[in-house]
Amino acid sequence: MAGEIHDGLGQAFTGILLQLGALELLLADRSAQERALLETARDLAREGLTEARRSAHALRPQALEQMDLAAALQRMTEQMSTDPSTSLTFQLHGAPCPLRPDVADQLLRIGQEALTNALHHGQASAIAVTLTFTPAALRLCVTDDGRGFAFDSLHMKAGFGLTGMRERAIQIGAALELTSEPGRGTRVEVTWRFPPGAPRVER
Question: For the whole prediction, is pTM greater than 0.70?
């Protein structure tokens, strides 16, 4: 959505401003009232461009503007670990490498959704968030020892936010797997493979 706002509305407002600038040159000898109307239109277009940029920026997790995915996940688990009856841990395996912004964004959102569900619905005593880097891929797992649910329950899957997590995974070409069983906890695992030969740059 942030990309659509930036590339769609942002570019549209930029084009309007360019056209209004050209129109201003053509109307240089027109009346003060006509020039004032043109300037008002330019002001509105500038405000629209500013708002589009602000909205696009706000849609990106603020944590990822300041740190990488591993650090953002660790901070998230620390911030959400408020119930002393639930053990919440984060583990990193392998050496982190820079990720494309969209990949980091969607993985963080998936982890956040899975962790929130485990805390609010799982009734778990232990929740583990694990991020693993290998030469070929990275894997994010959120597991809990909570009550779980019957996977064939459409109501439970909808409430768990599975559709949203799957859509986020699809957007970045990742594979998401959810396993759960009544009384035996839940596991959310998303795997994203590094594109062959693709530059691994974050910005």
Answer: no
